[in-house]
What we know:
The complex is a heterodimer of chains A (458) and B (305). By secondary structure, chain A is mainly alpha-helical. Chain A has helices at 13-31, 53-72, 80-83, 93-153, 161-179, 183-205, 210-230, 232-235, 261-264, 272-298, 300-310, 312-317, 322-348, 358-371, 376-395, 398-403, 413-427, 450-454; strands at residues 37-41, 47-51, 241-242, 350-351. Chain A is built from 18 helices and 4 strands. In chain B, strand 2 (137-140) and strand 3 (148-151) form a beta hairpin.
Amino acid sequence: MAAAERPPVARPLAAAIRDAAGTGLLALGLSVPILALRLDQNINNEPYLRPRWDYVAIAVGLAFAARLAYLLIWPRLPSRTATTKRQPAGPAAASTRLAQALAVGGLILLVLYPLLALALTGRAGAIKWIDNFGIQIMIYVMLGWGLNIVVGLAGLLDLGYAAFYAVGAYSTALLVHNFGFGFWICLPLAGIFAALWGIMLGFPVLRLRGDYLAIVTLAFGEIIRLVLINWVPVTNGYAGISGIPRPTFFGLPFNDSEQGFAAFFGLEFTPLHRTIFLFYVILALALLTNWVTLRLRRLPVGRAWEALREDEIACRSLGINTTNTKLTAFALGAGFGGFAGSFFAARQGFISPESFTFMESAVVVAIVVLGGMGSQLGVAIAAVAMIGGTEILRELDWLKQVFGRDFEPTQYRMLLFGLAMVVVMIWKPRGLISTRQPSIFLRERRAIHAGLVKEGRG
Amino acid sequence: MEYFFQQLINGVTLGSIYGLIAIGYTMVFGIIGMVNFAHGDVFMLSTFIALIFLMVLTQVLGIGSLAIALFIVLILAMLLTSLWAWAIERLAYRPLRGSFRLAPLISAIGMSIFLSNLVQVTQGPRYKPAPAILGDVITFGDGSGYGVTISHKQLLIVAVTAVLLAGFWYLVQNTTIGRAQRACEQDRRMAALLGVDVDKTIALTFVLGAALAAVAGLLFMIYYGVVHFNDGFVPGVKAFTAAVLGGIGSLPGAVLGGLLIGLIETMWSAYFSIDYKDVATFSILAITLVFLPSGLLGKPEVEKV
Lengths: 458, 305
């Protein structure tokens, strides 16, 4: 039934149909009653059940067809395992070069993106494309890269990443309102605060085993959100904090005044300037995250992270201080989350606890997991696909004509993310782009003295 | 004093529900060492299944006797929720046995997100009211002041929990199935060598946990009179806290932990602050894991190299 186990030979048709009928029956059992009967209320607010047996029929039919196809067609396909040879250890030249080309191409595309959007869609359309797509996706790319240090490199599953995002955003908002700081002072402070919170929360719990740690970080995420909701005198509760100033261009605000950016450069005022500027700010922040991560991977601490991910007991026996190593990863990841949060606050101008729920953490975890833990390119591609995909779903009006007027494609987003996480874990547990590239190689075999072999250096 | 006893009764009621869910976490953890993150959402699913069947029986089929209707709902909810748990184990967890460390947990998180959103998509995002049943109360006290009240709902919840736990305890301690389950918990490879079907036993563990969660789901639906697609998350984390507090892997521990969490939550809301009641439980989770990782009744964990 699962994709991982491949039926060895194609079964005879009758047996396959019988097997698929079983799957169909299972689907029937699962979809009754949750799919078949919808709890609804009529005009007098009296609850009643609305039958939807057509949905059940579709679900059962799909399950039957999928299982039948899996049993009959899948074994006849040419086997992949037989044809592809195992990659030799060491840098895989072709795939590395492809990845490099993709990364450079992607970078050039990103830098030119606002101009392309402007050229292709005109001024009115460009704001939507740069803001909803460009900035939105880049925020998640940055969050994904930040979390990738924790999950992908150090192998610590952090389910409360939105908490650090929230710390960054709220630090910015509170610093602005209480001390009158501008965005550019708040940004580094927000990152530092978030990192401090990461150390404070991480220190006691980082000794725990992996799945306990995941649940505790989830609990911390919820605690921080609940405190933000309930500590009304400081955070203004559900109502949130508004009036957070936008970033300025070396002191020049993006407004219609005499001292504004447009007036200074003698341009005609348009809100587009600010949107483009914000895009480049988040692009720079994301690239900074990426650069720091790539650099750190080559340092002893980065190697210790990856060793920790692979085998914690081995690390401990080799004398690596696991708690400190984990703590650096946790704090660094939290710090980048804080930067992203600070940017988020300044871009929206308004923040509320609604933006920092568990689902937010789950989306970022899903991006890292699906993209490939530890792979920077994979995380970026996953963020583009998932966040961009959601935004595109919002745009697809013709779907409403196919599925009826109350069809809302975006509500299927998390459903698909959840399913994708399960499927990827079964099919490719290391993520879609899974490069566990070693950062150090034994380049060649050397003939050494027999005495050294005895010491284990061979 | 009456106020305290009232809170005690409310706490035990809530704690019974948490205890029933916590058993599912603790058994699965005991046998395969995995936090079944989707268990809370299986519980949430069962509240919907129970409500839908209750509506079918009372409104569509018009069964007059509430006791019979509730009994049928209980059986059906246990069966269908178990079927879901079996399918989830088969599709999302079994292929991952022997995969890397975090894979089953990530798969379970994916499943949890999938389940809550499946219910949101198919049933809608609003709170669904359940028919008000068993609303009568028994009042103790002399009529002056508050008096302590126990509603029929609360009696039902505590009674059903006690009966089911007794039956469940018998199943685990005295039957072949239970013996196989405990054998797998102690040493899976040895159990397999001695002829225990390990895959089947693990599947059974999930099914039993889900059946108890379904009981909790029905009781939760009756107690609160409303169900929501997001109700799996917070009760799920609290039940997990109960399992950890009682000592993960220990069945009496799960029940004890459930009762304690129920009492702490109720007392906290009654005497300190209702806004921070979830913060209190979540903090207990962190504190227990850091300072008392083996819980109240659990065995200390030995790390095998």
